[in-house]
Amino acid sequence: MAALNVREADRLEVTVLVDNYTDLFVRQNTEIVRRPAGAATNAPLAEHGLSLVIKVCADSEEHTVIMDAGISAVCLLHNAIVFGIDFGQVESAVLSHGHVDHFGGLTAFLEAAGKGIPLVLHPDAFLERRLNVPGVMVIELPRLDESVLEQAGADVRKKSEPSTLASDLLLVLGEVERVTDFETGFAWAEAKIKDEWVTDPFHDDQGVAVNVKGKGLVILSGCAHAGIINTVEHARKVTGVDKVHAVLGGFHLTGPLFEPLVGPTIAEMKRIGPDFVVPMHCTGWNAINQFAREMPEQFALNVVGTTYVFE
Q1: How is domain 9-310 classified at the CATH fold level?
Q2: CA torsion angle for 127, 131, 137, 139 (degrees, to 10)?
Q3: DSSP state of 3
Q4: Does residue 124 come out as left (phi exceeding 0), alpha (psi in the -120 to 50 range) or beta?
């Protein structure tokens, strides 16, 4: 694969609009980690979902992109008001994959944006999906509807290959190559492919990356069903940039199927050597705490409303 030309950014801001955790008393501000200054009378909400507002700048250019939209319009719209996010300034959107905790608020976002928004996603984001827990239950999952997105104003762009947004400052990773031997997927997750229920290959799972001048790659994942290490290595391969400055997002290391992956994932993350690691959303409490113990200099505890500034 030839490296894709991704322009260097002078500055990147990532604001966490939706995540699983909120805490009004987390106030450890640094040059990189900017905590929200909120009051209990107008407190943010948290939910099992993820939404990131990404602002990327180069010289006089400034572009704003949203990645994912949480599980509900309630949290997304409320937190946008609390944190002063103007959806009218968002020029494009990326969906990390077709699970409802990432697309649940998407229609509300599109309607609030008030214009036709390019929405980049993998074609498989529209698959019919379910969770099949052996001997326990089968849970049908909400399905993304392309016609509803278009009616809400989305310019739906289905892409499986890497592509760029924000005047080539932001890379959408596309279908992530699997290279590790331990990130083997989610055995309980199933998708209907060619009229047959099969273990979900999650070909639609993708992240985004920005190459910050003098720092390296900042990589953002949704759930990393493809594996967070696979995602990082794919970003390095696609961009041709070896240095990883920061990895943020859901790492999907929660629950009994994924506990054995926590150790190998942290070991590989140490090998890659990012300057910052910020596990969110579906990483899971146990894994988040292990990252904090094993990578204390790189780790940042995420809460809703935090803005990460890389420049």
Answers
A1: Metallo-beta-lactamase; Chain A (3.60.15)
A2: -50
A3: P
A4: alpha
